[in-house]
Amino acid sequence: MHATLPLLEVTDFPLIDRARLDTVQVNLGYRCNQQCLHCHVNASPKRKEMMTRETVDQVLDYLRASGAKSLDLTGGAPELNMNFRYLVQQARALEVQVIDRCNLTVLFEPGQSDLAEFLAQHDVEITASLPCYLEDNVNQQRGSGVFKSSILALRKLNALGYGQAGNPLTLNLVYNPQGATLPPDQVGLEQDYKKQLGAQHGIVFNHLYALANMPIQRFGSTLISHGGFQDYMALLRSAHNPAALNNVMCRSLISVDWRGYVYDCDFNQMLGVSLGAVQSPRIHIKKLAEVNLSNKPIAIRDHCYGCTAGQGSSCGGALL
Predict the structure, then answer these.
(1) Is 0.90 topped by the overall pTM?
(2) What is the predicted pLDDT for the residue at 219?
(3) Considering the domain boundaries, does residue 313 fall inside one?
(4) Number of domains in the chain
(5) Does residue 265 sit within a domain?
């Protein structure tokens, strides 16, 4: 695995500050039942890192203290953490919105046969990865058989009411490009997804999020191996859209790793770049309530251009 941080340290990305905190994004661990080419977390079935119950309780303490309105759960496959359901139940009891970044095939993993029903029971918003509506493209990026399993999972979620008109259960899909290109227009792509998935598989969903691939971890290492890292960075920089700066997710989000340490975003977490508001040493979630984050600087590196290229890109899709 090639290290990408040394290639990203020097940057002229515009300085940005925090606004009001809205979302606490928590990485519950790096273990995943898939191993995708575009994964910026380098997750796989072989990873062992998992958040403990003690750290989960510290996250809940911070939710109470901060007044954050949304808890965004990611991984790996966050559902594979044994504390996932406990965290969801406790957060919902606090009337915090919960988002599950689900890879869909996890619904068929051992011990997860009732996972879809659990998510529906607790009104969890599902943001599900489906990098294309074509079977070959999905299997190429995510592994053989993943597309068919994903379709079965989407049908199961639809049957529970997810994505259905007039039903509050929200089902969003996520698109990633196959390689070192920017995602197409999100609005038009969403229309294509709805048309193709509806006609071919009877699938419905709420929204599509088009995300740019970030030049870090597995995807960044692949770019280096193929000699395309600098070309991809040049693409991101040339497509920089200043209008996206006001909406970048790090202005209203913090990212918590499986050990409880806090970063400005999930990408900075994967690079080990400390929270800009405190610089080094890194700060733990159990001490974050003592820090006033408002108007504090955000740690930036050259990969930040990935969030402002073209229509912009964040965990909630296009920014413009």
Answers:
(1) yes
(2) 87
(3) no
(4) 1
(5) yes
CATH number (domain holding residue 165): 3.20.20.70
129 and 32 in contact (C-beta within 8 Å)? no
Domain assignment present for residue 115? The answer is yes
Which domain does 209 fall in, by range?
5-308
Grouped pLDDT means (10 residues each) for the chain, 320 residues: 93 96 96 71 81 98 97 95 98 98 96 97 96 84 84 98 97 91 96 97 97 90 94 98 96 97 95 88 94 95 97 93
Helix or strand or coil: residue 209? Answer: strand
**Please, how many CA atoms are within 13 Å of residue 183, restricted to the half-sphere of its CB?**
31
Q: Which amino acid is at 224?
A: I
Closest to 26 in 3D by CA, of 72, 77, 66: 72
- The Cα–Cα gap between 168 and 120 comes to 10
Tokens 């600087």 correspond to: 297
Contact 14, 67 (CB under 8 A): no
209 falls within a domain: yes
Is 27 buried (19+), middle (13-18) or exposed (0-12) by CB count in 10 A?
A: buried
Q: What gap in Å lies between CA 296 and CA 275, rounded to an integer? A: 10
Return the SS3 of 114: coil
Judge contact between 264 and 252, C-beta under 8 A: no
- Classify each residue of 300-314 as buried b or exposed e, where b means 16 or more C-beta atoms within 10 Å of its C-beta: bbbbbbbbbbbbbbb
